[in-house]
Amino acid sequence: MSVPAITTSVGSFYLSRSHRNRATPRFRMAVRSGAVSVTPILTNLQRDCATPLPVLRHVADSMAADMRAGLAIDGGSDLKMILSYVDSLPSGKEKGLFYALDLGGTNFRVLRVQLGGKEERVIATEFEQVSIPQDLMFGTSEQLFDFIASGLAKFAQKEGGKFELQSGRTREIGFTFSFPVKQLSIDSGILIKWTKGFAVSGTAGRDVVACLNEAMERLGLEMRVSALVNDTVGTLAGARYWDDDVMVAVILGTGTNACYVERTDAIPKQQGQVSSSGKTIINTEWGAFSNGLPLSVYDREMDAASINPGEQIFEKTISGMYLGEIVRRVLLKMAEAGDLFGKSVPQKLLSPFILRTPDLCAMQQDTSDDLQAVGSILYNVAGLEPNLSARKIVVEVCDTIVKRGGRLAGAGIVGILQKMEEDSRGLIFGKRTVVAMDGGLYENYPQYRRYLQEAVTELLGTETSRNVVIEHSKDGSGIGAALLAAANSKYAHDF
Q1: pLDDT score, position 340
Q2: For the residues of 197-226, what is the DSSP string, one character each?
Q3: Residue 7 has what pLDDT?
Q4: Cβ distance 150 to 459 under 8 Å?
Q5: Within 292-385, where are the H helices?
Q6: Domain limits of the chain?
Q7: Which PROSITE patterns has this protein been placed in (predicted)?
Q8: Fewer Cβ in 10 A, N or C end of the chain?
Q9: Measured between alpha carbons, how far is 191 from 182 in angstroms, rounded to an integer?
Q10: Burial 245-282 (b: 16+ CB within 10 A, else e)
Q11: Distance, CA of 7 to CA of 16 (rounded, Å)
């Protein structure tokens, strides 16, 4: 029996639990020559996904090497190492009302912040989150940006209370756009390609700020984009506003990415561009990294069936969009090859992305003797009715995939820090260095967080790792984008 290819959407990954529970599981009989033990399947999976210290070292070293190659010349490695044109991070002097628009996945967020300068800092913030209809993820550029501009306009109409635009100013926006963009300036950038399940037509090769500006003009909305930033860049700026030791930012959610503060003299491809600070932020686009990753047959099958085969391999092993799907493919193999789940294969289990990462997390939190929550989730989501022995195997499968993801993410972070340390000679590991983390996967999955931290500690050693502080920066990219809009405001002289 073959696994059906993913040819349409990954929307089922986000279906609500209540919607999925209504249907009674439908079973389809599978043809078998006899019951087969699933133990070899689990053993092979654990072998293929193992992340012992030598594997982690190779990943970290390869990450650092690919960073250098990507900084030397465009196309020098899998890592695009995109210049952000953010040369000066927020100073705290910024004042006034600023907006942020954050497009990074299946939702977009709009936010406003009133800044009061050094004394008052952030006076007030408000935000709303809007779900993007699934058809717009595969629609036209104009349809998507019109929808986003409409949401922004509705949010702006509710402005009041502590939020006040100074007379004579135009509202300015920090636009967080969490897809690969070739930045042309602080307020313009060309879309390289869509990721995270998006396949919007008519945008690739266009300036995404122009796309948004045109949509706002069609609505008669008087706003201007002052800063175009990646979500990781926004997270770094938001965290750095409060803590000068922040040097790296990582997003671990539906997708993943990382950025860091780089010396401009360490960027050969910069071609003489001048930075007043001598530093800039580099958007690594590390989801495209692929060197030396431990992959299983299930990873390769999932990649081949994806909308971007051969691309974003690091993202497909460590981010929230894919962990549940890898587990589903393993469970399907077990259901077909053995009698782990009875004599039939439930129809539901054949559906790509029906098992979500939050389901994995909930199953790993089940500490009951009979793993009742595990059984309920498997029945409701996939139509499985496993006995206790089978439930334990399912939890082992979840742990194997999540452990690999967390540890590889930790190795990636160490790779970035290693590269920075080699260039700065002790200025990274020799002092407190903060990695700002955001994203639902990191925030909500305790085991994943633990595996990530363990990998960092193993690679750096106990003493050095004490100087590397990994801090959760919740929703930092939104505030960070507004702060970068303020730092690059045409009214900056008023500060």
Answers
A1: 82
A2: T---BT-TTSBHHHHHHHHHHHHT--EEEE
A3: 31
A4: no
A5: 297-305, 313-318, 320-337, 357-364, 372-382
A6: 51-81+243-475, 85-229
A7: HEXOKINASE_1, HEXOKINASE_2
A8: N
A9: 6
A10: ebbbbbbbbbbbbbbbbbebebbeeeeeeebeeebbbb
A11: 22
Rounded to the nearest 10 degrees, how much is the dihedral formed by the CA atoms of 484, 489, 494, 495? 10
Least Cα distance to 226 among 193, 187, 274, 179 occurs for 187
User: How many Å apart are CA 60 and CA 456, to the nearest integer?
Assistant: 10
Give catalytic residues, as residue numbers: 196, 231
Residue type, 304: A
For position 278, what pLDDT does the model report? 83
Instruction: Give, in order, the Cα–Cα distances in Å from 490 to each of 127, 170, 215.
Output: 24, 10, 22
CATH topology of domain 51-81+243-475: Hexokinase; domain 1 (3.40.367)
312, amino acid identity? Q
Going from the C-alpha of 480 to that of each of 162, 236, 237, the distances in angstroms are 20, 7, 5
Cα separation of 48 and 90, whole Å? Answer: 45
Lookup result for tokens 């500006």: 213
* Inter-residue contact 285 to 256 (CB < 8 Å): no
Q: What is the pLDDT of residues 148-159, one digit of tens each?
A: 999 999 999 998
Please determine, for residue 75, whether its predicted confidence score (pLDDT) is greater than 80: yes
Confidence label for 5 from pLDDT (cuts 50, 70 and 90):
very low
| Of 28-42, 293-307, 410-424, the least confident | 28-42
Beta bridge partners, 188, equal 185
Say which CATH topology domain 85-229 has: Nucleotidyltransferase; domain 5 (3.30.420)
Amino acid in the structure at residue 287: G
β-pairing, 279-283 vs 82-83, is antiparallel
pTM of the model: 0.83
pLDDT at 495: 61
What does the alpha-carbon distance between residue 486 and residue 113 come to, in Å, rounded to a whole number?
10
Specify the 3-state DSSP secondary structure of 476.
helix
Q: Is the dihedral of CA 411, 413, 416, 419 positive or negative?
A: negative
Residue 336 corresponds to which tokens in the numbers above? 């077909």
The 10s digit of each residue's pLDDT in 29-55 is 333 333 458 899 999 999 999 999 999
Dihedral angle sign, alpha carbons of residues 374, 377, 381, 386: positive
220: exposed, middle or buried (Cβ count in 10 Å: 0-12, 13-18, 19+): exposed
433 within 8 A of 245, measured Cβ to Cβ: yes
Structure tokens, 355: 């098992």
